[in-house]
Amino acid sequence: MKVQKLAVAMLFAAVVVPGTALAQDRGFEPERRALFISILENNGCKFHNLAPDPTTMKQIEANDFLRDELRAIVFDILESGDGVREGELLVLQTDECV
């Protein structure tokens, strides 16, 4: 019975917390996703794929983000609706940015 309750709780958490439930399976930690979003929110809420803002890049590099990790986070942000693509830009749609 205890195992069954745990399984239901885990399923509920996966449904209630979009964008983080399968984060580890996607190649990043939920905390890293939150950090990346925070960096973007503090720097205009946009990330240009080909020519990122120098200040944003310094903060990304200072936090040791890896290319594959960033790719997975950006994909998750787009898939969850926390951001949209406008050409080469990722534009956040979080409360801080809308």
In short:
Keywords: Signal. This protein is mainly alpha-helical and 98 residues long.
Topology (SSEs and partners):
Elements: H1 2-16, H2 23-26, H3 30-41, E1 46-48, H4 54-62, H5 67-80, E2 83-86, E3 89-92
Antiparallel strand pairs: 1-3, 2-3
Question: Would you mind describing this structure in some detail?
Answer:
The protein has helices at 2-16, 23-26, 30-41, 54-62, 67-80, and strands spanning 46-48, 83-86, 89-92. The chain is mainly alpha-helical and 98 residues long. The chain has one domain (2-92). It has a 3-stranded antiparallel β-sheet with strand order 1-3-2. Strand 2 and strand 3 (89-92) form a beta hairpin. Residues 1-21 have low confidence and may be disordered.
List its salient traits.
98 residues; mainly alpha; 3-stranded antiparallel β-sheet; 5 helices; disordered N terminus; signal
